[in-house]
Amino acid sequence: MIQSLTLRFSCPQSNQQKFEAALRAFHQLLVIVITKPGRADEIRRTAAKIHIAVAFGSTCFTSNLNNFIFQNPTKLIFGKGQIARLSKELPKNGKILVTFGGGSVKKNGVYDQVISALEGFDYQEFWGIEPNPKVETLRKAVEICKRDNIDFLLAVGGGSVLDGTKLIAAAAMIESDAWELVCNPKLYGGTLPFASVMTLPATGSEMNRGAVISNLATGEKYAFYNTYPKFSILDPQTTFSLPPYQIACGLADTFVHVMEQYLTVTGVSPLMDRWAEGVL
Questions:
Q1: Which helix H or strand E contains 114, and what residues bound it?
Q2: Does the structure show a pLDDT above 70 at 63?
Q3: Looking at the whole model, is its pTM more than 0.90?
Q4: Helix/strand/coil (H, E, C) string of 34-101?
């Protein structure tokens, strides 16, 4: 059992107090999110303290991060204004199904950017994929894919929207029910290609194969694995409008996911270990 974890950072002495306050607040946040997930008010108050890190970060780290593209194997397209690249990345011919969550993308400008980039494409929209996506909802999208001969899926939103889209893309290729596919990977018969425009930094669904799918009728929740997204667009500006609570959840999610991979299997990839330590 791990008794303690020591993190070392370089920081100008003048910012040391801000830095230490931010770390204490983040540690407190992790404890609350993990052990008291129902304490929403307490989580929000603690998340507000982490805003100290914004002032800290602006002076402790001076970084002009340029737009970049990194492929391994998902093509990550990162940077300001990159949603416009959809028109270059999506297949010119074919029918596209764009999947969404509850509608926050219409409030932060992401929806307008996506629709502008889709001008001239043959597409339709599917709304309502929930946090912890429900197979009952996803079945409706699978039916659309089969009925309208969809060729490509584009997930716009957070990790849950992309998780749901991963199952939709695979379930559209088989006759069996989507939940049967979740429970029995041997039914996997390929997938429709899919990609994403992400609006919430958290689990890393934009560059992995995994998804977590729930079944309301049975009360079950299982992991599901498809292939990797063809590409994922990550514009940090889409995160600016996130409320403190969502920022807190994303930070905790990122930290815990990196930590579990770092500690589960040791000594396999020294390079990945150093990356993980850098993130942590």
A1: helix 110-117
A2: no
A3: no
A4: HHCCCCHHHHHHHHHHCCHHHHHHHHHCCCCCCCEEEECCCEEEECCCHHHHHHHHCCCCCEEEEECC
